[in-house]
Design brief:
Elements (H helix, E strand, L loop, with lengths): L6 H36 L7 E7 L2 H10 L3 E2 L9 E5 L5 E7 L14 E5 L3 H10 L4 E8 L2 E7 L5 E6 L1
Parallel strand pairs: 1-4, 5-8
Antiparallel strand pairs: 2-3, 3-4, 6-7, 7-8
Amino acid sequence: MRLPAGHAKRLFLGFTCSIMFLIVFALLIAYNTEAESSSFIKSNVEDYPLTINIPTTRPEVTIQFYRRLGFKTSDGISSGLDVFSMEKEGTPYRLEILYTKAPDKNAVFNSVSGMSFRVGNLDNSVRDLEAKGLRFVERSGKRDGISYASLVDPNGISVKLFEP
């Protein structure tokens, strides 16, 4: 079967344009994906807070404790009836206080055993927090040349303040 005169050229031109369109489209997708992933790789941990889950049977007491440490309510995807999100400017932590009915203190699932905060002046920070009603387990520890103080939250999670 033979095509009428001029149709072969048009088919070839249409096919060539379609292929070129697909190549340009593929390059745009590849460039956009590369740009997104390279910006993610270059970002700091401060740009993406670490989420720490704190399961508790007493959310009001836990929220009050972390407010005394300077955390504030944050709007987030996980905010809800049983989850209370908190953040503190200058820290990479985002806390999610999870209400649980489990009375067992060993049921600290999806949580951490401790966290640390760098402070400018350890003595002043300890005094300020004690004035807010927090009690320290250790006021002036020293390890590897770093001074620290530690306290425990209402759920048994160790909180350390350190001054390099």
